Amino acid sequence: MLSEHMDRVVQAMARDLVAVDGVVAVVMGGSRARNAHAPSSDVDLGLYTRGAVDFDALDELAARWSSTSTRFARPGEWGPWVDCGAWLEVDGMPVDWIRRDLDRVEQQWTRAQRGEHAFHAQAGHPLGFLDVAYVGELVHARILQDPTDALQLLRERMERMPDALGDALVAGLWEADLLLTQAGKAAARGDDAFVLLCLSRTVLLACHALAGRDRRWVVNEKRLVAEAQTMPHAPDGLERRVRNALSTVDGGAAALERCVEATRELVADVRVAIA
After folding, report:
1. Domain spans of the chain, in order of start
2. Residue partners of 149: CB distance under 8 A and separation at least 6
3. pTM above 0.85?
4. Contact at 8 Å (CB) between 85 and 44?
5. β-pair type (43-49, 23-29)
6. Are 238 and 172 within 8 A, CB to CB?
């Protein structure tokens, strides 16, 4: 939770932001909205927009609120999915403003209902940005300003993950077999980096499969294993087993091969659990 002072600051900031042309609503997102934050966690504010946005006004607000020099990035400057925003420091606390286009959110909701999803290259997202996570972000968010109730009405439709999407996330675990085969070959060559990339992706896909089985929205890779461990169908000791599987400790081909085998056994247990 935020301190009383910082909560008042965030509320005032949200009121300023929603007054900007094109900003429909403002939410608190990220780990603080889900009560999964650390004391040092950033405050993430989502700016939901529609139509033309007055980015110059957002520049002015960012400069007024932040104790450090900043500007509001323009669409696409940060990448195709986390496309723009601003990094601020307010009373010593990092505050991130992140823009979300409501039309794109609604498009992803339509795709989710059809069971469609994909992971896209995006800075800061090693697995890739899950496009339908736009929906999960809104479901988990704490709405701060929503003067037309547009966001609340949209969120009420999205609370439960569609069965088609849940089934598709479960089916996506097929890729684990390919990744484990590739990792096994690379382990014999002592290719540490490639093996760990393959195993990390395998583990995260398994977590998404668990989320799909339990119809639980997740938003990105951060603490995904810990979150998956709390899901009803998670195998016992999931987080511990992942930690052990991804630790090469003594290095070399033999250690890598043990990591591959441990991950293979974990995936097999996940498949049994979600069957």
Report:
1. 4-158, 163-274
2. none
3. yes
4. no
5. antiparallel
6. no
pLDDT digits (tens, 9 = 90+) for 119-144: 999 999 999 999 999 999 999 999 99
Structural tokens at position 81: 């999915």
Average pLDDT of the chain, as a whole number: 94
User: Can you name the CATH fold of 4-158?
Assistant: Beta Polymerase; domain 2 (3.30.460)
> How far is the C-alpha of 42 from the C-alpha of 31, rounded, in Å?
8
Q: Which residue type sits at 37?
A: H
Half-sphere exposure of 59 (CA within 13 A, CB side): 6
d(CA 199, CA 258): 12
Q: Quick check: 167 and 190 in contact, CB under 8 A?
A: no
Q: What are the residues facing 94 on neighbouring strands? A: 89
pLDDT single digits (tens) 235-268: 999 999 999 999 875 678 999 999 999 999 999 9
Is 1.20.120 the CATH number for 163-274?
yes
Per-residue pLDDT at 103 exceeds 70:
yes
How far apart are the C-alpha atoms of 82 and 100, rounded to whole Å?
Answer: 8
Rounded distance, CA 204 to CA 199, Å?
9
